[in-house]
Structures are given as C-alpha cells and as structure tokens.
Write a structure and sequence with these properties.
The chain has 247 residues and is of the alpha+beta class. The protein has helices at 2-6, 13-19, 24-36, 53-65, 68-83, 125-133, 137-143, 158-171, 217-233, and strands spanning 40-42, 49-51, 87-93, 96-103, 118-119, 174-175, 184-192, 198-207. α5 (68-83) runs antiparallel to α9 (217-233) and α6 (125-133) crosses α8. The chain is elongated, with a radius of gyration of 23 Å.
Length: 247
C-alpha cells in the first residue's frame, strides 16, 4: 500500500513482484484482497494497479486526529499552570500568523489576544519564530512592505529584523518586549512536524513585570520544553536548538 501510495502512475503485477522479490501469484493475491476492501483499484484498460480511495479517506481521518490544536491543548494548559501566564498557540496560514488558542493565566486582568487574532511577523514573538524556522520565502514576504511601528520599540529596520531572527534561530526561542504593545512581552518557541517542518509556535505572554525582556531560565525552559513535547507528539525526532539560558 505504501508503494502504491507513492507512485504517480499505476503499476503492474510483474513490476511489483520484482520490486518485492516475490512471486506474481503472491502479489496478485494480496492485491485482490486489498481491492476487496477498497485500498487498491485496478484500471479497466491497462489492468494495472493504483492506490484506492480508502487510503485517502483513512489519511484524512488520521490528519484530523493529528490536528496540532488537539495535540497541543493539554501541554498548553500545563504551560499556563506552570508559569501562571497566558499560554498561546499559533500557526502559519497563508503567510500570516494566526492565533489558534489562548488559555488565560491566573492574573486578575486577562490577556487581550483571542483565537483568530493575526499577529505581525516582524513585531511579535510568534512571528519572529516563524521567520526563523518557517519557509525561507517568509522573510521576503515580510520585507516586501514597510514594517509597521506599533510602538517606539518595534523593529522596523530590515537589517535589524534579520539580525534578530538570526538570534532566534540560534537560541531556539523569541521575545518581543514592548514591540506590539507597551508593557507587554511574549516568549515563544517553534513547533516542528514529522518532516522537520515548522508547524506553529507556543508562547507565554503578559506584562513585562511577569515576562521580562530577558526572561528567567525557568520560563525559557517551560516554553521550550512544552514546544519540544508537542513537536514529539507531531512526530518530530530532531535535536532541539538550545542555549545556556534554555538548557
């Protein structure tokens, strides 16, 4: 089934038997059984075989089970409880950073960001993580238009942004103190999927009083370890980027 699913064109029994060092009779019996259950289809004109619709249906069901929001929710709640700060989850949707989930912290005043909020790539911790670990074309997209100055501290210089993103890539996490809103900071780390691709980010965010511009090692560990746990659940098996502050 795996071989058929990777082929662009249908294949015959002889070729399959050769590839698997098996007899044509054995391969044929397997194909007939798979056809009976809808996993394989046979073309009427060429009599060659291809993956069936059942594989597509099962793949879609599996994709739904591995939805990043469903996978991340428990770890996001754990991050919120461990730090006491609002915990957020984001994903990249058509070159935009979209907040998928916000779990409010234990402070009296709640965090203003809500699911569905779009965050600027250059100004937010979530956005800087995406620029560092997402598609290479993302930086070009970001710099194609002027960088909005949300506050006097927002990075609006292309060169300064590229240097900041290089630092994020080297240490594995990002902050954005006072860059979107005065007195507010975010601390974010990337998520990776089974193919090693950027799959989103998790973060804590709140008052500079509680999430300092230079976060304490305990907060860095909490965020990066949460991101790593979620990434492992997504099938990622790489080596996590760390610095002394986050180790």
């Amino acid at each position: 089934m795996e071989r058929l699913a990777t082929l662009r064109e249908p294949i015959g029994v002889t070729e399959l038997a050769r590839e698997f060092a098996s007899s044509k009779a054995t391969v044929y019996r397997h194909l007939q059984t798979l056809m009976l259950h809808g996993f394989v289809r046979q073309e009427a004109t060429t009599m060659r075989y291809a993956a069936g619709i059942k594989l597509f249906i099962l793949g879609e069901r599996l994709r739904e089970r591995f939805d990043v929001l469903a996978i991340a929710r428990d770890d996001l709640a754990r991050l919120r409880d461990e730090t006491g700060q609002p915990a957020t989850l984001s994903a990249l949707v058509e070159h935009q950073i979209v907040v998928l989930e916000v779990l409010q912290g234990h402070a009296i005043v709640n965090f203003g960001t809500q699911p569905g909020t779009v965050l600027d790539l250059h100004a937010s911790a979530h956005g800087n993580v995406a620029l560092a670990f997402g598609p290479e074309s993302l930086m070009e997209y970001c710099l194609a238009k002027p960088l909005k100055a949300w506050t006097p501290h927002t990075i609006c210089s292309p060169g300064a942004l590229q240097r900041a993103v290089a630092q994020v890539r080297a240490r594995g996490w990002a902050t954005a103190p006072n860059r979107v809103l005065q007195g507010v900071n975010g601390l974010a780390a990337p998520l990776f999927d089974h193919g090693g691709n950027y799959a989103g980010a998790v973060a804590i965010a709140g008052s500079i009083q509680y999430v300092p511009a230079s976060p304490p090692p305990a907060q860095i560990r909490a965020v990066t370890q949460t991101a790593e746990r979620i990434s492992r659940k997504l099938g990622w098996n790489g080596r996590w980027p760390r610095t002394d502050n986050g180790s």
